[in-house]
Design goal:
Number of helices: 6
Helix content: 25-40%
Shape: globular
Strand content: 15-25%
CATH class: Alpha Beta
CATH architecture: 3-Layer(aba) Sandwich
CATH superfamily: Nucleoside phosphorylase domain
Number of domains: 1
Distance between the termini: 31 Å
């Protein structure tokens, strides 16, 4: 049976949503995760939730303990990881409030450990298709049924942060083919693949970054307001998705077996 890890936590640690809810403190070889794990069940499916930036959002993107978070979920027996992430839109058609079930990423981070294999073994993990196709298909089906505005694919560019982009950078990223921009997808998705877990992201567009001169330039207040307005839809998607996830054979979970030198 599948066990689901959730990173983001928007609304999903509400005691009314999780049955038999409890918090557990864990430690890993990479230190403590961003928050205690909130564990319980949703419609009979076991779930473990981590708040990526801490319960009080006091961990900046570069300091998120990505390896500890993924390791903790793996130790809990999670087979799949579904995350939420706030993003800036680089495309006119991806409006603030829309969801995108991303299928590709471009990495512009510089400071983050991206592998569990730093000593004795080398891991060349395949990332041609970084986000689980099975989970993305389920997400699309759920969003369609719930009539939530969404896009079935998109390329996200992850920057180091914590600053937002310049207008020149934003336009450059458009030229590279990026559809969205955030500060958290990499290395999270890479580490999940190394850990042998399926991974998918619900990327929520909160703003138009700064390329669109006819609108207000992105600010933290703008991001928070849009996230709050759409928290209910994130929750609706996750609650409908989780009972549908089956522990089927998937290339995501097998990739690590042929990646170790």
């Amino acid at each position: 049976m599948a066990k689901i890890g959730i990173i983001g936590g928007t609304g999903l640690d509400d005691p009314k949503l999780l049955k038999e809810k409890k918090e557990i403190d864990v430690n890993t070889p990479y230190g403590r995760p961003s928050s205690p794990l909130t564990v319980g069940s949703i419609k009979g499916v076991e779930v473990a939730i981590i708040s990526r930036h801490g319960k009080k959002h006091d961990i900046m993107p570069s300091n998120v303990p990505f390896r500890a978070n993924i390791w903790a979920l793996k130790e809990q027996g999670c087979t799949h990881v579904v995350v939420s992430t706030a993003c800036g839109s680089l495309r006119e058609e991806i409006k603030p409030g829309h969801f995108v079930f991303i299928d590709q990423f471009i990495d512009r981070t510089t400071k983050r450990a991206q592998t569990f294999y730093e000593k004795e073994k080398v891991c060349h993990i395949g990332m041609a298709e970084p986000f689980c196709p099975y989970l993305r298909k389920l997400l699309s089906e759920v969003a369609t049924e719930l009539k939530i505005p969404h896009h079935n694919k998109g390329t996200i560019i992850t920057i180091e942060g914590p600053r937002f982009s310049t207008r020149a950078e934003s336009r450059l990223f458009q030229q590279w083919g990026a559809d969205l921009i955030n500060m958290s997808t990499v290395p999270e998705v890479v580490l999940a693949r190394e850990a042998g877990m399926c991974y998918a992201a619900v990327a929520m567009s909160t703003d138009y970054d700064c390329w669109r001169e006819s609108t207000e330039t992105v600010s933290w207040e703008m991001v928070v307001n849009t996230v709050k307005q759409n928290a209910e839809n994130v929750t609706r998607i996750f609650l409908a998705l989780i009972p549908r996830i089956k522990k089927e054979d998937c290339a995501c979970r097998e990739a690590i077996k042929s990646a170790i030198m």
